[in-house]
Amino acid sequence: MSDRKYRQRGYQDDDQSKRHPRDEQRQGASKERTPREFRKANFPGFREVSRCMRCSQVIDSAVDNTQLCTKCGSPLHSCGQCTWFDTGARFECSQPIPERITPKDGQNDCTYFELQRTVERETGSVGP
Fold first, then answer.
1. Number of C-alpha atoms within 13 angstroms, CB side, residue 94?
2. What residues pair up with 82 in beta bridges, in sequence order?
3. Would the pTM count as exceeding 0.70?
4. So where are the chain's domains?
């Protein structure tokens, strides 16, 4: 048994004869180290997508006036799918429209229409 209470280096280090082999390797010939390459952080990525307001199906970015959702059949050119749709604004639209468009989930020919896009985290694994 050792007369030392703790085994940490530096605590009562009077006896230098008990060196570990690792310490000898460190003090030996110093190897020239090559710099490590910076690795990309392994964080999930983000993507910008549009989704159907009823079924959450991913929608292509180009939407024409007559296009329907491929999964549920709801019209994609509607107030509910628009970036400017705001339930707290006048006529439920952030743009200066002259009259209320009804129904909000029905197809319309609004000139201010922009497909709503959201930023989502990519959580799935990368496929081949």
1. 8
2. 115
3. no
4. 46-119
